[in-house]
Amino acid sequence: MPAARASVRPAVAIQVLFILFGVVIAAFFPFLSLFLDGKGLTAAQIGVVIAGMAVARVLFSPFWGHLADTTIGRRCGSAPSGVGSRPSRCSRSTGTRRS
Prior knowledge:
This protein is mainly alpha-helical. 69% of the residues lie in helices and 0% in strands. The protein is built from five helices and no strands.
């Protein structure tokens, strides 16, 4: 007897994705300064690197969001799918064909 496939609502899947992403960032970000220190950067240089990451996030997040919405569409861009299945899903939703 085949196992029943559980269906997950897209909103729940996206919330879980954001939670997991936050956990990964929270686990690794505190050690970034130690990693950079081990690579020989001074405290000032480490501060510049971390500040540059924050500035890039603030400046480019709206740009990437707009690009995703206008280029691949909201439906395809927010579809929770694996990396391998994303190109085929996008090609079906936009009407283009991938070889």
